[in-house]
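Structural biology now treats backbone shape like a language. To illustrate, our science desk offers a sequence and the tokens encoding its fold:
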Amino acid sequence: MHNLAEFLSKYKHWFLFVLLEVASLVLLFRFNNYQGSVWFTSANIVAGKAYDISSKVGSFLTMGKTNEELTLRNVELEQQINELSKKLYEHTRDPKYLKKGQYRFLSPFKLIQAKVVSNSLNKSENFITINKGSWDGVRRDMGVVCGNGVVGTVYLVGIHYSVVIPVLNAKSNISCAILGRSYFGYLHWTGGATDMAYLDDVPRHARFKLGDRVVTSGYSSIFPEGVLVGKVRHVYNSDDGLSYRLAIQLSTDFGNLRDVCVIDDASIRQQREMMVAAQDSLKKMGDGISQSD
């Protein structure tokens, strides 16, 4: 104990120097946007390589379970396709109608396949890192999905890696609708369970039932209409009593997320560009009016 005290006393100036250096770096990168973004980008490139290696090992160890989930998902999709084929054939008597409709739906889409190399679940603002970036065509605000449904939105883009804001992030805000019922709201996650989120602002006159599927509404410039989100499990009144709050069991298993796809949809990209142009135009008009006053 005496030797430890003597050692600390002898090198206390060095310990103080290191402590002050760490504190100054934390303050520099935490409260300065430019330095923080430079640090985040540089650290993400280095950490991405390490995460990529560990992700490949984890992916190999969980390959059996992943294959089982894909098999079950494929069976479910086959059943849905068969049901839709029967209904469409009854109405049109054209067996090629469904095939034509699927081609029309998928034609605008380009899916960029990616691997998850880092994924957090225990924070209020979780992030996912994927191994595709601007070099592969990924851009900010693109939607990200997996075989089971919605994952999140691209937030930061590097050359070879990108950071995604998943549904399991307090800042995530995705416009969703109840399938076949035309009622929509906004999906939020409030922490806690990683398989549950809440659909807010559903109107009081909405008619639905437990177990109804929830999909993306197509009203945003990120996701097309109809991407699966989950199922309705519980119904609550909103805090102000003017709308419903629905508890949604998410279809995506974020704890076992390995393979994702980034949606590069030409029509969505054009919609986003038009929205940005409209906002810039309104801003210029406002500036012109204020200057004239």
Q: What stands out?
A: Residues 1-32 form one domain. The radius of gyration is 24 Å.
